Amino acid sequence: MKNIFFLLLTLLLFSSCEQAVFTDFQGISAGRKWTIIVYMAADNDLESAAIADLNELEAVRYDARLSVLALVDRNPAYDMTNGDWRDTRLFEIKTDPGGLNSTIVSRRLDCPELGLSADTETELNTADPLVLSRLVDFAKRSYPAEHYALFIWGHGTGWRSGPSAGTSQATAKAVAFDDTHGQYMALPSFGRAIADKGLSLIGFDTCYAAVLELAYQIRNDAELFAGSEGEILSNGWDYTSLLADFLSKSDLSVNDLGDSIQAHFAAQYAGLNNATVSQVRLPEVENLFAKFDAFTGTVALALTVEGARNAVLDQILHNVEGYHFTSFPSDLYIDILDFSKKISGIAAEITPDAAKQAAITTAAGELENALLRAVPSSWAKNGTTRKLGVHVIPLQGIAVPASSHELAYVRGSMAIDKSAFVEDSQHWVPNAVPQSDSLLDKLFYWTY
């Protein structure tokens, strides 16, 4: 009898453990294919857009294959709807039976990792990378799935990082601007927050996300990355159409989610000039970075006279496809594929040396092949492909470069916590002591 009792107890214990492993705390089967985490850093002038996008998320008819969590940090100043709450809240998105409207119906969650309670008000600093890191941990523990996606929502400015991260002195840097705390999340901090989290896809519903600096920072942290090379509208992605289309697919693969993001962005932004969206295969970014650095080094070494330098700079400022805000000062980004084609196309103006001309052409071809592997699919209003950008220099006006780069973009400078791209680039970024094989040194700091 005692043996039977212990046998039953053992079976009960194993049964409990099995349930803990294969079901989440709501009793939903871990057969869930995806958990999508939307990080809505809306403690700024995008507060109203955040509420609108929450309602877009609620207009989707979900099934057991997909759960969506949204962390929403609101601001006191820009939106007074839905009770005008001003703190930070975590929601499990629920389908609104009324469809797309202005009322939030989703379930507010407790989140011990973040100190959030469904019944109390707590103000979090969404610029703090620990908030992002702990949110992903909570999602994986509480909503286990085959795949996890992270959507970064809000303002974005691409490469930004450096010693001023965590201060209020810069109004447009990196991601996750939190006006209440006067901070933002710098690129290296973002990279550390998501490192080793087992994400399948990272999407940036922000401006200036599809740049090599960002892709290189997170190259080991997901399979696929999606974002735009330039500006997007404040209302961002059309989440209702995007997720409804995704759920209509049978496999719900990583590629399916990337394709839904791209297709519905293209439909939404078909009338906006300079609109782009790209899918980037992050495992290919290491090779792309190497080929980009090799190409720029080849061009740099071929620049030996001021006339050649002027020819390259003229292409970058006036002919290469570029992106920047319409107000100044503003960072200039250029499209890498167009840059490669335009610069290799003037190889004879860069140098009379036939061997160096051939080297530029060869390096450009290798770069373009690497882009094809790393950016297998993209859309642009102007019809171009393989869309991925890179930072050049801040502009003081249209085609008017600043007198210098920010120290955080200068290799060997005293700036702390520089991005991986800046630390590893041998031939693109400027150096504290100008080098003959750095293209930006040759363009902006070299004496001929």
Topology (SSEs and partners):
Layout: H1 2-22, E1 34-41, H2 47-58, E2 66-73, E3 88-92, E4 107-108, H3 129-142, E5 147-153, E6 175-178, E7 183-185, H4 187-194, E8 201-205, H5 212-217, E9 224-227, H6 239-247, H7 254-268, E10 276-281, H8 285-302, H9 306-319, E11 322-323, E12 330-335, H10 336-345, H11 347-350, H12 354-374, E13 377-380, E14 389-397, E15 400-401, H13 420-424, H14 439-444
Parallel strand pairs: 1-2, 1-5, 5-8, 8-9
Antiparallel strand pairs: 2-3, 3-4, 6-7, 9-10, 10-13, 11-12, 12-14, 14-15
Helix pairs in contact: 3-4, 6-7, 8-12, 10-12
Fold and architecture overview:
The structure is a single chain. The chain is of the alpha/beta class. The chain has two domains: 26-206 and 234-268, Rossmann fold (3-Layer(aba) Sandwich); 287-444, no CATH class. The protein is built from 14 helices and 15 strands. It has helices spanning 2-22, 47-58, 129-142, 187-194, 212-217, 239-247, 254-268, 285-302, 306-319, 336-345, 347-350, 354-374, 420-424, 439-444, and strands at residues 34-41, 66-73, 88-92, 107-108, 147-153, 175-178, 183-185, 201-205, 224-227, 276-281, 322-323, 330-335, 377-380, 389-397, 400-401. Strands 4-3-2-1-5-8-9-10-13 form a nine-stranded mixed sheet, sandwiched between helices. Helix 3 packs parallel to helix 4 (187-194) and helix 8 (285-302) packs antiparallel against helix 12. It is elongated, with a radius of gyration of 24 Å. The termini are far apart.
